Amino acid sequence: MNIRSLRLAVLALLLTSSILASAQYSVERNADIVKLTDQKHETTVSVLTSVGNLVFSMKVKGQEIIHFPFASTDAFKARPATTGIPFLAPWANRLDEQAFYANGKKYTFNMALGNVKGATPIHGLLTQTTYWQILELKSDKTGAWLTSRLDFSKHPELMAQFPFAHSIVMTQRLHDGVLEVRTRIENLSADPMPVAIGFHPYVQVTDSGREDWTISVAAKSHYLLQPNKIPSGETEPITSLMKDPSAAALRDLNLDDVFGDLVRDSRGRASFSVTGKKQKVTLEFGPKYHAAVLFSPNPKNAAPPNPQQPPRPPQDPNFICFEPMAAITDAMNLAQAGKYSGLESITPGGVWEESFWIVPSGF
Asked: Measured between alpha carbons, how far is 358 from 199 in angstroms, rounded to an integer?
């Protein structure tokens, strides 16, 4: 082989290697569903962009690790519920009244608008919104991602309930078999804007059921809750709830609980995980997620059926939610009452940005 042929062979090899590397990741859009694929790790992530920008599937080697108990996205859209990985904003979980406080001022909700409901409003205004707009769909040799934007300030019925003009940019990125969800909030208003957002990821392993799962909880404190699930502001050591937070049997727990004093690694991340026989799903919270809610109702604690109502089909108990939260449940109102000091705010023109990661292993 002469030098010219050798050079051409090397060039062809390099070109082939480059093509194979870039082909590891791909992104495809079919109507309102975007699918991110990592072929090397046999992982796909699916996002329903038309309803809350919802991640509703993450399959690893054919195994589904996101709990989504619907036969199809059409069935979900016909009767949406809290499932998948919903975004909770501008507040996560519950408020103790039909109002919130910011900068020392009380903002009372207009209940007639219908986008806030109940005596303890829950999960904010955006879990099922249609307002997300796709900014970028892309894949390269570093990953595959979807970036979307929601201009909160352009929607009067949202501003009527939370009168802080802001925009939100969310990126779901798949890299090396790991899903990163990054959220960027820009405060466009003239006043500091409180940050009490969160996510509600429903995850599962498939090699066993809830009775055989073990969880690891990276927190030192457990918040005491009132009967309406609102924190009192007082805490106890997490060991009062589970003897070994690093390896707790889920079958012994009935969880809808708030945790603080998160334990961080050298990167500033706090890790929460569920493990089955071999499979494991870990959620890593970035440094600006200061609290966590864990939600996994124990079927042994289910309320007895009401004979006055038609029977409901049994709920699948095989899930757990590790919820990254910028602040604890009812943070804005507890801060006003002097019972919580961890509430952040974004200065006028400022930005808040943070990620969490879903890391599967053992598949």
From this structure: 12
Cβ–Cβ < 8 Å for 65, 59:
yes
Share of residues in the chain with pLDDT > 90 (%): 89
3-state secondary structure of 167: strand
- Among 204, 227, 196, 210, CA closest to 322: 204
Name residue, tokens 């050591």. 237
Rounded Cα distance between 63 and 16, Å, is 31
Enter the tokens of residue 351.
């930005």
What's the mean pLDDT in 31-36? 98
What is the DSSP track for 196-211?
Answer: B-EE--EE--SSS-GG
pTM over 0.90: yes
Domains of the chain from N-terminus onward: 24-300+315-361 (2.70.98.10)
Say if CB 269 and CB 290 are below 8 A apart. Answer: no
Above 80 in pLDDT, residue 53?
A: yes
For 248, the token pair is 């707790």
Dist CA 197 CA 100 (whole Å): 14
Angle at the Cα of 232 from the Cα atoms of 297 and 274, rounded to 5 degrees = 30
| Rounded Cα distance, 108 and 93, in Å | 17
Q: Which residues contact 81 (CB under 8 A, 6 or more apart)?
A: none
- pLDDT score, position 13: 42
The tokens of 297 are what?
A: 């109702």
Number of other CB atoms surrounding residue 122 within 10 Å: 17
Q: Are 84 and 66 in contact (CB under 8 A)?
A: yes
User: What counts of helices (H) and strands (E) characterise the chain?
Assistant: 4, 26
End-to-end CA distance of the chain: 45
Residue 266: phi and psi, rounded to 5, are: -65, -20
Identify whether 297 is preceded by a cis peptide bond (ω within 30 of 0).
no
Q: What is the pLDDT of residue 18?
A: 41
Q: Which residues of 16-31 are buried (b: 16+ CB within 10 A; e: fewer)?
A: eeeeeeeebbebeeee
